[in-house]
Amino acid sequence: MPAPPAASGVRRLQKELRDITLDPPPYCNAAPSSESIFTWYFTLDGLPQTPYEGGRYVGELRFPPEYPMKAPKIIMLTPSGRFVINSPICLTITDFHPEEWSPMWGVRTIITGLLSFMVSEESGLGGMTATAESRRALAAESHRYNVERVPVYKELFNSEYQKDLKKLNEEAEALRKNCGDVSENLGNKTTNASRAQLRGIVASIVVLVALAVGLLVLRN
User: Fold this and answer.
1) At what angle do helices 5-22 and 107-118 cross, to 10 degrees?
2) pLDDT of 150-193, one tens digit each?
3) Given 3-state DSSP classes, what are the helix, strand and coil percentages for the chain, each rounded to the nearest 5?
4) Can you give the residue ranges of the UBC core domain (predicted)?
């Protein structure tokens, strides 16, 4: 008797988890939610020599109980300038195109395909356009965004989270130090300026006194 669809999907996803854990695809990572193996989260690292370089983008895969016979939904959680966040993305590897879905495809196929699609300019539901400058700015901000606004990043990708958190703390400390140095320099400059101003006032008083004495001498 064939296994129910959900049981078949669980076994398939468990196998994919083992495969990805042993051999993660380049620039990608993925793991199931602690609440359900039918909900996965993944990260995409921006490819070199693209506006996304240096960025890290978190997304979500929602698998139906009939997986792998039916396709999942893909939703991005980190702004990139390429995809609308918190909105399903229309691709041939998603449930928008069930007629094109293949049960041979899996988590690895989906996230590597999405990474390739990301650097293209193909349009579609869930996609968006933006300037290269905007995408670079979002890439630079993506790590902070994930740490502060994507809770699952800490839960499932804690190693990356800790590295990003450490870097952000170091940057904040460096900024505080620089601000302190600037304040100290300004204070020194203000003190020096005040001393110079005081010396000028004293010199002016001395000149005025000398003039007054000179006038008195002339009158006498």
Assistant:
1) 60
2) 999 999 999 999 999 999 999 999 988 888 666 566 666 555 55
3) 55, 10, 35
4) 8-170
Structure confidence at residue 200 (pLDDT): 67
Residue ranges, the chain, pLDDT below 50? 209, 211-220
Residue of 47, 84, 90, 168 marked active site: 90
Q: Where are the alpha helices (DSSP H) in 42-157?
A: 107-118, 132-149, 151-156
| Domain 7-149 fold | Ubiquitin Conjugating Enzyme (3.10.110)
Q: Which residues are CB-contacts of 119 (< 8 A; sequence separation ≥ 6)? A: 47, 50, 52
28 belongs to the catalytic site: no
Q: 132-149 vs 158-219: helix axis angle to the nearest 10?
A: 110
pLDDT score of 5: 61
